[in-house]
Structures are given as C-alpha cells and as structure tokens.
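Hi U.,

Before I forget, here's the chain from the pilot set. I'm dumping it here mostly so it's searchable later in email.
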Amino acid sequence: MGAARTTVRRRRAVPWVVLGVWLAALVLAGPLAGKFGDIQQNRSVDYLPDSADSTRAARIQDRLPGGEATDLVLVYHRDGALTAADKQKAAEQVADIGTAYRLTGKPQAVPSRDGSTLMYPVSSTQPGQDDKARDAFVDGVRDIANGGSGLSVEVGGPGALNTDMSKVFGTIDGTLLYATLGVVTALLVLIYRSPFLWLVPLAVAGVAAGMAMAAGYGLHELFGVTVTGQSGGVMTVLVLGAGTDYALLLISRYREELRRHERPYEAMRAALRGCGPAVLASSGTVAAGLLCLLAADLNSSRGMGPVGMVGVLAALVAMTTLLPALLVLLGRRVFWPLIPAFGSEPRARRSLFSAMGSSATRRPVTVLVGGAVLLGALALGAFNLPGTLKQEDSFTEKPESISAGQTLARAFPGQSSQPITVIAPADKAASVLAEARATDGVARAATGRTGSGWTEISVYATAAPETPGETRTIKALRAGLDDTYGTYVGGPSAQQLDLADSQARDREVVVPLVLAAVFVILVGLLRSLVAPLMLLVAVVAVWGAALGIGGLVFGPVLGFQGTDSGLGLLSFVFLVALGVDYGIFLMHRMREESVAGAEPEVAAPTALRTTGGVIASAGVVLAATFAVLTTLPLVGLVELGFVIAVGVLLDTFLVRTYLVTTASVLLKRRVWWPGRLSREPGAVAPERQPEPV
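Structure:
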C-alpha cells in the first residue's frame, strides 16, 4: 500500500517538474528570442551562394575604399518639362545632401531627352554594412529631397530598394505573429466549444514560438546560419500551425482515454502511447524535409532548413511535454462544459466523415479515378503561371524606390538607370572598360573606386532593368570578360539572374532528397512499401494541383506580374512534408485497426471516421495559418502562403478523405506489403468503439 501511494505521489509530481523545467527554460531563452529580429538579413546578396558571380563582386566592393557603398538615384520629374526653378532646387538639395553626408563623388545631373526628368546618382560609403545606418541615410536623403507645386521628387536605386525591403520585413514578425495567433484562437474556440480549453494549446504554442526564436538566434550565432525575413516568417507559421495540429491530435486522443481511465495521468500516458508515434513521425517528416534544404546552393533556402526545423522541433517538444503537463494538472474540468466522465460512452452521432467514408467505399474505383482526373486537370493551370517575378513587381503596395525606377524607365527609354557592376583587376581596368563599352547592349560605362587590387566599373545597359535585353547584356559581359580578364559581374539585376539560376539547380537536387527522406520515415512507421509510396504520390499530386490553382489566380485574379522563382521548391518541400502529416495520422490509425484484426476495407473507413474530424480541424488550422502570409505586402510570400494553404485544404478534404481511403480499400491487404499485415490479419484485440471526433 505504501509503495502504491509513493508511486501516485511521484506521478502527481511529474507534471509540476515538467512545468518548472519549462519556466526555467523560458527565463533563459527570453532574452535570446528578443534578438531574433536583429539578425535577419534581407539584401538580395544575402540570399545568394558565395560562389555566385554577383556575390563575389559584392564582397570585393565591401573591401574597396570606404567599404560597401549605398547607391541611390534622385529623380526630379515634372509632367511636360522641368522649369529653371526646378533645376535650381534640385542642385541645391543635392548640394545639401553632399554637406550632410560623405559621398564618394560629386553627383552629376543627367537630364532626359524630353526635359521632364532629372536624374542624380548619389553614392556614399558612410553607412557601410550596417543596415540601420543605411536606412537612416536613405531616410535622411528623402527628408532633404522634396518637391511640391507639381514637382515630384523620388529616391530610388539599390540602396533605397534595400531600405524599403527592410522596412517591410521589419513589420512582418509582429504582424505575422499576432495575425496567426488571432486566426488560431478563433479556430480553436470553434473546434473545442469550450471557454477554457483553447487557451491551453494556444499558450503552449506561444511558448514554443519563443523557444524557436531563441534557437534560431543560437543557430545564427554558433553556426552562421542565414536568417531572412522570409525564413523567420515561415518559422512562426510552422510553429503555430504544426504545433496546433499536434495539440489537436493529442487532446482528441486524451479525451477518448479519459473515458477509459479514472486518473488524468493514466489517460495522458495512454494518449501519448497511442498518438505519440504518429506525432513523432509527422514532425520527423517535416524536419527531415526541411533539413534537405541544407543541400541547396541558395543561402536563404539553406538557412530556412535548420530555422524551420527548430520551429517544428520546438512545437513537438512543447506539445508532448508542456501541453500534457498542463492538461493533467487542470484535470477533466478543462473540457467544461463537455467533460468526458470516466466510464461514460461518447454521444452517438453520425459523423460527417463516417458518411464520407461510406460514400467513398461504395464506389471506390469511380471515386479514385474521378479524384485523380480532377487533380490532373487542376495541375494544368500551372502552365498559366506568370513569368519570373521582377523586383519592381515584388511588392503588393508600390514603395518609393519602385516608383522612382518606373519614372526613370519612362524618361530614359534608351538607357538603364541601374548600373551593372563589373569588378576588374586594377591592372586590367583600362582594357576591361574598353571591352565593356564595346559590348553589345551597353549604353555607357565609367570607372569608380579602386583598392585592394580591384577597380569598380559601372556599366549601364540600353535595356531597362530585369528585361531580356539587359539579361543578354549581363551574359555577354560575363562571357567576354570573366574568363579573359578575371572579372566579376554583379549589381542588382545580376543578383536576380544568379538567384534564378541557383534556384533552378536547387530544385534538381533538393526535390529527390525530400522524397527519399520522407519515404524512409514512412516505411519505418508503417512497415510497408506500398502505403508510403501511395502517400507520396498523393502529396505530389496535391502540390501540382495547388500550383495549377495558383496559375489560375495569380495573374487573372490578383494581377501579379510574375511568380517568385523560389515558389516551386519551397511549396514542394512544405506541401510534401506537411501533407504527409495527415496521411500519417490516417494510416497509423488504420494500421492500429488492422493489427486489431480488421481487414483494410473495414479498417480504412473506421480510421477515417475516428481521425477525420481531427485531420479536418488540423488541416483548417494549418491552412489558415499559412493563409495569413497572403495578407503581407510581398508578392512572393503571398504566392507561397496561397499555394500551401490551397494544397493543405485539397489534401485534407479530397486526398485523405477520398483518394487515400479508396486506394486502401482497393489494395486490400496489399497496402501493407511486404509487411506481416499483408499476409495475415493482425492479432485479434478486444473490440472497442473509438470515439468519433
């Protein structure tokens, strides 16, 4: 009797110990989490691999006298023609800028042929590589340069674009976190219909988000992992979305076990044993898929792998330790008013997913073929995706730097206002300059700073930035100069070109790795080759259909002028890794039923009936969290959020509910081949009726 009491006391102490450990971890991690936003790097060159031509050019520019230069273009414009007073005002303001800041040279006015626009290139090394100093410099120039009375003054150029981009990313973390929390809160209240229960998983998700930010900061400081605004935003969505999914599955199973166990501690142990393998495998597939991004050449994609992984692992650890501890301490009353009493039976009701399972299994061939045809037809929409997204089209709300570039493109149709930077060995600078001027598509070229054995040459193309004509000019400069003179060709447009090339290479490398990693995990969980292959085919089909829907919406409905070059790879990684989650939940429960003796044609609809509600709730929550990305002012994030949200909904309500279920029914025991369950029924277990969710 004494030993039994001691055991009970120890078990009661376990949740308090877990809670204490988490409180201590929060105290230590809090200051680090607060620094997460400070380490984000959002310049184009930060996204690129070190081996890229434009990256090498940028690194050498940093070593030139004065360090990294912030290049701006002041654009003075009046419809019709500039007046003498306008030109005088422009000259005075540029002089004031030269007085207030240390410039690399005296800015020279470049008038347009029609006399409506005056362009002043301005460059300063004063801000250096400090982003805050750069932003302060750009804002200071904008304060000095002002128009009025019909004269418009805009500050553009690469430096201004980086500042505008930085300001957008600076608002993402807070906006995304609060918006996602709001969406998750609303959905949890609807799902649980309890005034208290929703607070528990939401609070734990918030704790997990803080721990993930601290871990992300540690990855950057210890291993130099690149953290961008995009990866930080995606990490927040992953923590809250995936974490809430794990909570939904655990709480559903816990409520079921409370009817069989008198003590909440015992019920939680049973719940963790029942759904623990599925949750572990689910998080494992996401983590493994994200880690495959380490093979990417692109810094931003390679950094997103470990950053996203720590987010998923933080959610996993929090939802399998802190959440169970809190639920056990709160007891059954946390479910009020729908408290699951010990020994009670769940209220008999016909589940929507029971009806879906019945309809799917009545005509499995028709359902499977019809669903496959529908997904294939939707995937054809991918051919309607707009071309590569240009920087000027990357904002949903046009900032000043983009507006300035468009004004210059109209005023100087025969010359680009954005330089292509050629970094040449100092002893060959004269020859490189002559060769650059003779290159087809070059309007003019001039030398700039010299130092550390290198000379900076600014080349202006005749074509507008990020057009096929300018791309041909960049490739011609590289072909004619790099091998012959040992030069590097960089600048904003060259960086975008290298970005697209790196992402094309990464798709070829990362996609097979993701498929292989997820397949291995599924084989280990399901002990089958057929079931994992079926799930992978399903999620790939969902990815294609989601991209196809994007092609039907992005251009025709939303008016986007391009598709982010990283959309294909990132949406694939997330949809495959996250989409397999729901397959794991369904197939793991189906395997439990098969081990208990049920044939697949019975086990499949039973698994759908018992897990369908959880999968639907989890799918809606995850889709809603990624849909929050569509409210942000960056087209690339809007496209990524849209495709993933649509894909998750397709996966939840079409693929898992109908296609995987009907395929399992048609394959019968072969779905578990070559495992033991494919040859003989499972050991018969005491029959029980799982609670519909």
